[in-house]
């Protein structure tokens, strides 16, 4: 597959490294040669110092025969214009990163598609969705809903209150049980569990279940004492904070702490219709946090542009009794450190955006590809076509690659957990969880 990436910034560099693992033919374009050094010398790609709004440069990059053109520079207009040019030259699919919430309205998708922009990516909105999913359930590190919650994946940190520790999987989640454990993150290792594997204290376990059994999962993992989130404190008033507040459930009350006075005035204007109190101050100031009621706050969300600040602020909030903390960590090198410090949910916008772009390079009917940084694994929703390999035999006889498991499926709007005897049907939405498996290898089962 021929892929062109415009912009060697955070998302572009991350995508180049991610896609190079698939051994794709990749060209990265940027007007500043120094930015290419952020990709790394060990990545097998071609770099081109040129503007993606130049027709000649696009031709030299191979846009006339490219399968996918990805524009992820900080300039929204440049991204969209270069997508229009690439599509006109013959590129099959195009993706543009944007920062205007108006453009992502569902009724505008066809409009932009006709212009030549196949897909729009708004990282702040994607991050806000993940943040709010986490806030809705204070006891969960990560939540992923499929088909409006017909199937739900929950990432849960296990403590001493968990009732299913140290027991083989075959005893705790058999074919008749209302959940499957599809993966376990233990220290630096990710485990796709078999029947003899056991859960241990401090594991991050990924449960696949249906919406009606979420309370049951909450009970067995010993999280019933966690209070639901009502009061939220956000440190940092950037675009991600704005999108989070605008899409937050109405029953939540939120305070935003922002150091810049002019930005506070702007936030008051942007969020005048929301239940948000804007506070001019430093979220690292303990006296300010106490004054603003941190001890009566159920969730603390750190969204400044500095990863270290966000991590330290969440650690402080934890020490002051806040159960649910969320930290935006844009430096991927810090993600494992943040996880080891047990600060709570970690948000990385470039990883979230890359996951959504990644699914466009697959030929199968696939939706909602997500890269789970903490588990170093991928989860995706595949829809098998008529006659595909995955529909020919029971799951246990499919010969699935090591490191891949099927957690569940949605059929006619109803979520179903999958056992070895399950027969998958064409049109099912099938949840696939994989670790160290090429996604191209997996999609062959669904074509």
Automatic annotation (TrEMBL):
Residues 141-223, 367-447 form the RCK C-terminal domain. Residues 1-121, 229-358 form the RCK N-terminal domain. One of its GO terms (cellular component) is plasma membrane. Keywords: Ion transport, NAD, Potassium, Potassium transport, Transport. This is Trk system potassium uptake protein TrkA. GO terms for molecular function: potassium ion transmembrane transporter activity. Pfam families: TrkA_C, TrkA_N. The lineage of its organism: Bacteria, Pseudomonadati, Bacteroidota, Bacteroidia, Bacteroidales. InterPro entries: K_uptake_TrkA (IPR006036), NAD(P)-bd_dom_sf (IPR036291), RCK_C (IPR006037), RCK_C_sf (IPR036721), RCK_N (IPR003148), Trk_Ktr_HKT_K-transport (IPR050721).
């Amino acid at each position: 597959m021929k892929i062109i990436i415009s912009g060697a910034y955070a998302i572009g560099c991350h995508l180049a490294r991610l896609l190079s693992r698939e051994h794709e033919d990749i060209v990265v374009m940027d007007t500043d040669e120094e930015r290419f050094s952020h990709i790394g010398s060990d990545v097998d790609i071609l770099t081109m110092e040129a503007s993606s709004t130049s027709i000649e440069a696009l031709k030299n990059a191979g846009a006339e025969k490219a399968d996918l053109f990805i524009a992820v520079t900080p300039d929204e207009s440049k991204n969209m214009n270069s997508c229009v040019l690439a599509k006109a030259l013959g590129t099959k699919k195009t993706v543009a990163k944007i920062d205007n919430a108006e453009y992502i309205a569902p009724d505008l998708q066809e409009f932009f598609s006709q212009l030549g922009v196949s897909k729009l990516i708004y990282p702040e909105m994607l991050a806000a969705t993940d943040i709010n999913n986490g806030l809705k359930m204070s006891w969960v590190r990560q939540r992923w809903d499929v088909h409006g919650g017909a199937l739900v994946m929950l990432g849960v940190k296990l403590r001493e209150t968990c009732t299913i520790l140290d027991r083989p999987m075959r005893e705790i989640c058999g074919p008749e049980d209302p959940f499957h454990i599809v993966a376990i993150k233990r220290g630096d290792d990710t485990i796709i569990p078999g029947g003899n594997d056991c859960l241990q204290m401090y594991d991050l376990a990924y449960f696949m279940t249906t919406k009606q059994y979420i309370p049951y999962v909450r009970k067995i993992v010993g999280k019933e004492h966690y209070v639901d989130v009502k009061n939220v404190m956000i440190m940092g008033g950037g675009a991600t904070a704005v999108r989070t507040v605008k899409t937050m459930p109405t029953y939540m009350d939120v305070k935003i702490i922002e150091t810049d006075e002019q930005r506070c005035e702007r936030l008051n204007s942007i969020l005048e219709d929301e239940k948000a109190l804007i506070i001019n101050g430093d979220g690292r100031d303990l006296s300010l946090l106490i004054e603003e009621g941190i001890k009566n706050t159920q969730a603390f969300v750190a969204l400044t542009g500095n990863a270290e600040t966000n991590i330290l602020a969440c650690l402080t909030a934890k020490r002051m009794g806040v159960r649910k903390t969320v930290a935006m960590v844009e430096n991927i090198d810090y993600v494992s450190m943040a996880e080891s410090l047990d600060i709570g949910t970690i948000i990385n916008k470039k990883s979230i955006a890359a996951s959504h772009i990644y699914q466009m390079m697959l030929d199968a009917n696939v939706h909602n590809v997500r890269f789970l940084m903490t588990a170093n694994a991928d989860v995706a929703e595949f829809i098998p076509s008529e006659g595909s390999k995955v529909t020919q035999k029971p799951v246990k006889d499919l010969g699935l690659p090591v490191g891949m498991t099927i957690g569940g499926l949605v059929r006619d709007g109803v979520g179903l957990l999958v056992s070895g005897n399950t027969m998958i049907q064409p049109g099912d939405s099938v949840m696939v969880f994989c670790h160290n498996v090429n996604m191209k290898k997996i999609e062959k089962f669904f074509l």
